[in-house]
Amino acid sequence: MSTTAEPPAETEEERVSYFRSGTSLRSWLLTTDHKRIAILYLLSITFFFFVGGLAAALVRADLMTPAPDLMTNEGYNRAFSLHGIIMVWFFLIPSIPNTFGNFLIPLMIGARDVAFPRLNLLSWYIYMAGGLFALATLVLGGVDTGWTFYTPLSSMYANGSVVLVATAVFVTGFSSILTGLNFIVTIHKLRCPGMTWGRLPLFIWSHYATSIILVLATPVLAITLALIAAERLFGLGVFNPALGGDPLLFQHLFWFYSHPAVYIMVLPALGVISELVAASARKPVFGYEFVAGSSIAIAVIGFLVWGHHMFVSGQSVYASAIFSFLSLVVAVPSGIKVYNWTATLWKGHIALDPPFLFAMGFIGLFVVGGLTGLVLTMLAVDVHVHDTYFVVAHFHYIMVGGTVSAFFGALHFWWPKITGRLYPLAWGRVAALLIFIGFNLTFFPQFLLGYMGMPRRYHVYPPEFQVLNVLSSSGAGVLGAAYLLPFVYLLWSLRNGAPAGPNPWGATGLEWTVASPPPEHNFAEIPEVTRPPYDYEIERHDA
Amino acid sequence: MTESVSPYTDRRQRHAADMMGMYLFLGTEIMLFGGLFAAMALTRLQHPAEYVAHSRELHLWIGAWNTVILLTSSLFAALAVHAAREGAGRAAARWLGATAAFGLGFLALKATEYTLEFREGLLPVTGGDGALSEPVQRLFMHLYLVSTGLHAVHLTIGICVVTGLAWRLRRAESARAIPVEITGLYWHLIDVVWVFLYPVLYLAR
Ligand code: HEM
Ligand SMILES: [Cu+2]
């Protein structure tokens, strides 16, 4: 892609796009256009990604040495708690669904907007209100409970603004619920003629599955947090054994939400990867029905495995055995996806473009994260590695290695659609590679540390662990820089990138049939679909 | 602001979407109360004898009358939906008015019940908890207060919505059935939640 010295002039498509349909601040803050709401989310989650990232930087800096030199114990506890809370609820959960989901779902199914456009905007405001509570917590000194809020620590002993941060998470929960509800109804009711369930892009299938979890699991978190707040404020004793309650009930309720929630965080990423793999291989996705169905299977089985977080909590061994078995079962649909992506790439006509590189990075990291999940769900092994860095590495491989890579993959794939401009591909490749390297350098040592017995959530550790910790912290530096890189060239491309045209990757899917950036009403005329999904020309010539 | 784009191609599509959205919302409400029911079930499993003993301290008959009142209000809500489907706006408004009135009746009786409990020293709030001697009793009454309180909040919202709708339809010759149907669904959910709360709390004796 060549870039001329003069920035290219505004194109005709840009003049009539959703971007120019109003330029005042008001036109953005009161918009009901799903594409503009997506942009609002993109800006806000990016902000929270930085806040959470700063907290992580503090944690990793403190862990450079075995001594507690940078922060007090209290300060360290607050740093990792804030990191977890912000990253989970203010970045990861809304990340792909609320930005790319919002932008793409109506375009992909041939609709003019989501089913309830005003509810969609309300959802953003609720998210921002929750975000303000979270920032208030930060300013008022934070919390030291970890993102898991375990009782009786959170309900009786913790100092800091537990009620405030619980309110923050409670409030954003309703944003999740409304978004999930909106997506489900949109996908059911607004598909254009010919867009049958069997023709839906896999991105849609995975967002459908995600939305089911959002709608059914989030209310349980809401009531659980409300009970914690009631315990702190009024002495309601449902989690307090001295008052006749049971702290394990908290863990059951929390993980009943939070295990499904890990799939909220990864299912949209799986959908992104299916799109990226198909577009990179220029072939139909191998076993489309299985990839689609596995998303639903993950959503359903994901509700039945929460007990694998409680193997050492004293729950009955029979319960543990069943949860262990079901956790093995939930890995099967994830495995199906990986096999099908591999088969899709087989003999594909692959171009080493950034979206493809991000997808490859995702698959590798997701496999490591998934397989170590299976290791963790072995009852005997978990007794050894529970609450160690092994667990930390496991879930970062999926949530950061996987989901954040997919997020960047999506950003690089749909950026030309969203903005109408191309970015320098070479820089995209560099970023993809650096993220992959930085990530492994940061988190692979943590598997070793955990296996050797380093517990999570401590900032003082025996000196023999220092080498691996220094490796991990330097990796975090590389990773942080790699995450910043795309900001530079993507923002640069807004002014200087060449106009993208409607379909720069030659991909299938209705979103590529409209102009880039899309016009305000998406489709001048509601399209009609007559072809199967991922109907790539090349495959048809071969056949 | 530019005028917003309608995502719908026709009214039927819109109706179907609205109904589905409401059903999903009711699903989230059921999960919300589900967490409380789980806590009550666990408390009963762990302290069966105490749970039964403290259930006996509740005012069985006030709860029973409230069940009757709420079920009747649901009947009125159903009749309002029926009238709206027939296009009879004013009749729908009248039935909605009756629904809201019975909802208010429920709240009044509930408030009386709370007052009685406060006087008896059974309510786990400052000044009203003199008779709460053992932990499980306090826990039981806490769960009672939180779950019936959350239910009352939902009912209050329901009353406001129903009243607002009745006001809008008071002179209407015809009525769009969808808002009435959706409001009716919400009302029935409030009713159903109570139908579960009543046995779990009052009838465990
Ligand atoms: C292949 C399926 C998976 C299995 C069998 C599995 C298994 C496990 C087990 C047994 C634990 C508990 C370890 C312990 O604390 O002792 C765990 C923790 C965790 N897993 Fe997974 N996992 C899987 C997939 C995932 C996915 C897809 C995600 C995220 C998107 C994820 C995120 C997490 C998180 C966040 C924790 C730790 C929570 C905490 O204690 O802070 N897991 N996993
Ligand atoms: Cu889990």
From TrEMBL, chain A:
<keyword id="KW-1278">Translocase</keyword>
<keyword id="KW-0249">Electron transport</keyword>
<keyword id="KW-0349">Heme</keyword>
<feature type="transmembrane region" description="Helical">
    <location>
        <begin position="79"/>
        <end position="100"/>
    </location>
</feature>
<keyword id="KW-0560">Oxidoreductase</keyword>
<feature type="transmembrane region" description="Helical">
    <location>
        <begin position="427"/>
        <end position="448"/>
    </location>
</feature>
<feature type="transmembrane region" description="Helical">
    <location>
        <begin position="121"/>
        <end position="143"/>
    </location>
</feature>
<keyword id="KW-1003">Cell membrane</keyword>
<keyword id="KW-0813">Transport</keyword>
<feature type="transmembrane region" description="Helical">
    <location>
        <begin position="163"/>
        <end position="187"/>
    </location>
</feature>
<dbReference type="InterPro" id="IPR000883">
    <property type="entry name" value="Cyt_C_Oxase_1"/>
</dbReference>
<feature type="transmembrane region" description="Helical">
    <location>
        <begin position="285"/>
        <end position="306"/>
    </location>
</feature>
<dbReference type="InterPro" id="IPR023616">
    <property type="entry name" value="Cyt_c_oxase-like_su1_dom"/>
</dbReference>
<feature type="domain" description="Cytochrome oxidase subunit I profile">
    <location>
        <begin position="28"/>
        <end position="530"/>
    </location>
</feature>
<feature type="transmembrane region" description="Helical">
    <location>
        <begin position="468"/>
        <end position="492"/>
    </location>
</feature>
<dbReference type="GO" id="GO:0006119">
    <property type="term" value="P:oxidative phosphorylation"/>
</dbReference>
<keyword id="KW-0408">Iron</keyword>
<feature type="transmembrane region" description="Helical">
    <location>
        <begin position="208"/>
        <end position="234"/>
    </location>
</feature>
<dbReference type="GO" id="GO:0046872">
    <property type="term" value="F:metal ion binding"/>
</dbReference>
<keyword id="KW-0479">Metal-binding</keyword>
<keyword id="KW-0472">Membrane</keyword>
<comment type="pathway">
    <text>Energy metabolism; oxidative phosphorylation.</text>
</comment>
Automatic annotation (TrEMBL), chain B:
<dbReference type="InterPro" id="IPR035973">
    <property type="entry name" value="Cyt_c_oxidase_su3-like_sf"/>
</dbReference>
<feature type="transmembrane region" description="Helical">
    <location>
        <begin position="143"/>
        <end position="165"/>
    </location>
</feature>
<dbReference type="GO" id="GO:0019646">
    <property type="term" value="P:aerobic electron transport chain"/>
</dbReference>
<feature type="transmembrane region" description="Helical">
    <location>
        <begin position="62"/>
        <end position="84"/>
    </location>
</feature>
<feature type="transmembrane region" description="Helical">
    <location>
        <begin position="185"/>
        <end position="204"/>
    </location>
</feature>
<dbReference type="InterPro" id="IPR013833">
    <property type="entry name" value="Cyt_c_oxidase_su3_a-hlx"/>
</dbReference>
<protein>
    <submittedName>
        <fullName>Cytochrome c oxidase polypeptide III</fullName>
    </submittedName>
</protein>
<keyword id="KW-1133">Transmembrane helix</keyword>
<comment type="similarity">
    <text>Belongs to the cytochrome c oxidase subunit 3 family.</text>
</comment>
<dbReference type="GO" id="GO:0004129">
    <property type="term" value="F:cytochrome-c oxidase activity"/>
</dbReference>
<feature type="domain" description="Heme-copper oxidase subunit III family profile">
    <location>
        <begin position="1"/>
        <end position="205"/>
    </location>
</feature>
<keyword id="KW-0472">Membrane</keyword>
<keyword id="KW-0812">Transmembrane</keyword>
<dbReference type="Pfam" id="PF00510">
    <property type="entry name" value="COX3"/>
</dbReference>
<dbReference type="GO" id="GO:0005886">
    <property type="term" value="C:plasma membrane"/>
</dbReference>
<feature type="transmembrane region" description="Helical">
    <location>
        <begin position="91"/>
        <end position="109"/>
    </location>
</feature>
<dbReference type="InterPro" id="IPR024791">
    <property type="entry name" value="Cyt_c/ubiquinol_Oxase_su3"/>
</dbReference>
<dbReference type="InterPro" id="IPR000298">
    <property type="entry name" value="Cyt_c_oxidase-like_su3"/>
</dbReference>
<feature type="transmembrane region" description="Helical">
    <location>
        <begin position="21"/>
        <end position="42"/>
    </location>
</feature>
